[in-house]
Write a structure and sequence with these properties.
The chain has eight helices and seven strands; from the N terminus they run βαββββαβααβαααα. It is an alpha/beta fold. The chain has a single domain, classed as Pyruvate-ferredoxin Oxidoreductase, domain 3 (3-Layer(aba) Sandwich). The radius of gyration is 16 Å and the shape is globular.
Length: 191
């Protein structure tokens, strides 16, 4: 069996680190792992997408529409934008953070309302939390990506909490290990 995960967000939110943590945790567990390059305008605050697939034998990192088991999203509109990539009954783990896209900033559009309700109505299961607020509580807004990985870890039972934390510590600079460990645990335990 192969698990397919899309990690989506806006440039600068830490998609690459999140994909490294997931890939490392799955590899350390003995899975074959394929991670795509980051797609999008990560340098400019644009939409960013990374694919991570793991299982017994994975031949490609690419996930087609209707093929994702999970979407991890750092921003609410990005979660809604990629909902069509979920399998029926798939799970979205998203931050409730809202970052205005260029048309909203320019005044030519409004940020869409009731996105969680719309995603749920489309058949997706949505687990939404204020990852930015939790990250600030943990010590740094930059740890919102790790907060989301902590929350997502609740869905991947075959990888233990200790294995996840080992992957986090392997992927972040040592001086930030404690902060990220705290952010991960707070995300996992958030209600």
């Amino acid at each position: 069996m192969i698990t397919s995960v899309m990690i989506v967000g806006v440039g600068g939110q830490g998609s690459l680190l999140a994909s490294k943590v997931l890939g490392r945790a799955a590899m350390d567990k003995g899975y074959d792992v394929k991670v795509s390059e980051v797609h999008g305008m990560s340098q400019r605050g644009g939409s960013v997408v990374t694919y991570v697939r793991f299982g017994d034998k994975v031949y490609s990192p690419i996930i087609d529409r209707g093929g994702a088991d999970y979407i991890i999203s750092f921003e609410l509109l990005e979660a809604a934008r990629y909902t069509e990539f979920l399998k029926p009954g798939g799970q979205i783990v998203t931050s409730t953070q809202q970052i205005d896209p260029m048309p909203v900033i320019a005044g030519t559009a409004k940020y869409p309302e009731e996105l969680i309700e719309k995603m749920t109505a489309s058949g997706a299961k949505v687990d939404a939390l204020d990852a930015l607020d939790i990250a600030n509580e943990a010590g740094s807004s930059k740890a919102a990506n790790i907060v989301l990985m902590g929350r997502f870890a609740n869905y991947i039972k075959e990888i233990s909490s200790d294995e996840w934390l080992n992957a986090v510590e392997a992927c972040v600079p040592a001086k930030f290990a404690q902060l990220n460990r705290k952010a991960f645990e707070m995300g996992a335990q958030a209600r």
